[in-house]
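User: Hey, quick favor. My workstation is busy. Could you predict this chain's structure for me?
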Amino acid sequence: EIRFCDWSSDVCSSDLRAEARIEELGISRAADIDVDAIAADAGITVRYASLVGCEATLVGFGSRAIATIRHSTVRGRERFSVAHELGHWELHRGQSFRCRVDEPDENLASNAQLEREADQFSSHLLMPARLFNPAVCATRWPKLGEIQEVSRDFQTSQLATLIRMANVDTLPVIVAGYTQGQRRWNATAPHVPWPVLDRKSVV
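Assistant: No problem, here it is.
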């Protein structure tokens, strides 16, 4: 089931607000999700620079903001950062929050509610359910090549694509990050059995 709401409503969850933004803009193809243009429409000027220690920063005043995004050879990471900062602008304007760090695992392992909400907004803005779900369901058991094809179509990183696939919950997907054999974070399809989730270390 695909739900929608008014994208500017404060009572909607971050994922529904992102989905509603795509609907409001009339976007019907993955190739038309121009995240820089969407940000500009929301009052954000996107700049790219060689940031150190941060993936992105956001400075705003009134109805305008500047998002500075770290240059990357992976366009999917840049796009996710732009959408993440747009999420902060739409969801958390007037609040303070840390810069998006340059190591994806640090964001995924973070318990910071604002960061998780901005990540969820970004994920659904770049991979809206109405477009993403059919692409995932087109193949019953997608292999690496097919996952890469979905990533190319939506111009997202493979990691972001896999995490979004887990949230769709049509496949038994488990994505996890480990440091020295210990699990730091995981994204798991809701119907995956609990005993699998209880494993916190790599044997």
